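Let us practice reading a record.
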Amino acid sequence: MPAFRGLITRRALAAAFFVLALPVALLAVLHSPRAKLEQAVETLPHAQQLPLWLGCGLFVVSLLCSAGAWRTALCGCGGAVGRTRAAAWYGTGSLANSLLPARVGDAIRVGLFSQAAPQEGRVWTAGGVFLAMGLVRGVVLLTVVAAAAAFGELPPWPVAALGGVLAVAAAVVVRVRHTQPHSRVSHVFDAFRALGRSPRTACLLGAWAAASIAARIAAAAATASALGVHSPLHAGLVIVPALELTSLMPLTPGNVGITSGGVAVALHATGTGTTQALAIGIALHAVELTAGVGFGAASVLFLVGNRSPRSRRVVAAAAGLAAVGAALLTGALIVS
C-alpha cells in the first residue's frame, strides 16, 4: 500500500484525468446535428478513388517500415530474423489490432518476435524492443508535432509535454547502456542498451521510424486531398499525432469510432468544418483498416505455409489475392 500511494502523484492524476477526459471531449465535439453526420457520409462516395488507394498503399509501406524497425532493434539485441518473416510477424499483429480491441496485436508481435531473440529472457527482450520502438517513434513524432506547431496547426504545449517524456526515456538509455542483465526481467532493457552502445543501430532504427511516420503522413494527406482539403500536408501533420494518441485508447475492436472521432476532433480544432472533418475521419479509418486487414491476411497466410520453396510460392500468391480481396471487402463494408 505505501508503494501504491507513492505512484499517485500529481502528474499521474493529471495523466489519468486527460485520458478519461479525451473520450468525453470526442463525444462533445462530435455531438453535432445528425444532418452533419449524414452529410459527411454522403460525401464519401464522391471522394477521388486514386488518392484513397494511394493512401492505402502508403499505410502498407508504413507497416513494412515498422517491421524493419522491429527487425533492426531485435538484431541489435543479438537476435536474428529475416526481412520477410519479420514483415509477416508484424503484419499478423496488424491484423489482430484491426479486428480486436485492447491492442492485442502488440502482444502477438512481442510473442512472435521473441522466437528470434536470445534464449535467456527472450520475452522480456521482445517487450523491451516494443518499448524502445515507442521511444524512437516518439522522437520522430516530436518533430512532426513541432512542425505542426510551427505552421500554427497545433498549440506549442504538446511539444513541451512530449519532449519531457522523451527526455526521461533518453536518460534511461544513458543510464543502462553500460549495464549487464542480471535476471530475466532485466532483459527488458536490452534494446535500450543496444541504442546506447551502437550509434549505427540507433540511427538505422530512427531512419525506419521516420520512414514509417512519413508514410503515414503521406497516407493521411492523400486521404484528405481525396475529400477536397486545400492543404493536405498540413492536415497530415495534424492527423498523424491524433492517430498516435487514439491508438493509446483501444476501447473498441479495431478502434472503430475512436480513430475517426480523434481525427475529426483534431481537424475541427484547426478550423476544418465539422462535416468535412467527420468525412475525413471516417475515410481515413476505412483506408487504414483496409491496409491493416489486407497486409495482415497476407502475413497470416504466409506464416501458415509449408517450408518447401514451391509451397512458399503458392502461399505467397494466395496471400496476395487474399490481401486484395480483404481490402475490397473491408472497404465496401466501411463505405456501405
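A brief commentary: Confidence is low (pLDDT under 50) at residues 1-35.
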